[in-house]
Amino acid sequence: MDFSLDLPTGPLAEAILATVRTSENPSVANHSLRSFFFAQLLAAHEGCLDDAAYDRDLLFAATVLHDLGTGDLATGKARFEVEGADLAASLLRQHQVPEADVDRVWEAIALHTSPGIAERRGLLSYLTREGVGIDFGRHAQIVSRWEQQIHAAYPRLAMVRSLVDAIVERAARSDAAAPRYALGGELLRERRADGVTSLERTAAACPWGE
């Protein structure tokens, strides 16, 4: 397939990029952009690009904004996935995105850490979760032809440690942000107990490192 590092254009895409780049640390912002490219490549690999449910602009919104709850705009009053979904929905509404599409993006972001659920909530939720997962090394072979190009444009910058630090910091702000068995809550408990989380321990298995 033809592949390029071109991003969607227009006021909404510009607002998405500006929001991420000014509220998240650079390693998390780069992770979010890589997730978009990886999700596109997965969609091409699985023959989804012509699917009626495939929408590149919504995929850009969901993947690039999926960790907004770890950034400076998040208050730590709810799970980072939910705060990020709420923040993303607010941004989309400011740009008159139809409510049905806002809801799809909200769901994809809110469920991106929920294995076994996101995959069953439609193509956008599936691609968002799997695009994020590829950046952690899951099904890396699908993007092996293009990953060097993507990483050159958006380097990792110790992504796993930076992302875990951001999730844990916000999870520590309130009980509502760290419920039992939610990713933020479990990472917070692991960090407090052992000083290192299971996500950081498994980062070495990622073919691209941390």
TrEMBL record:
Residues 28-125 form the HD domain. Coiled coil: none annotated. It holds the Pfam family HD. This is HD domain-containing protein. It comes from Streptomyces lunalinharesii.
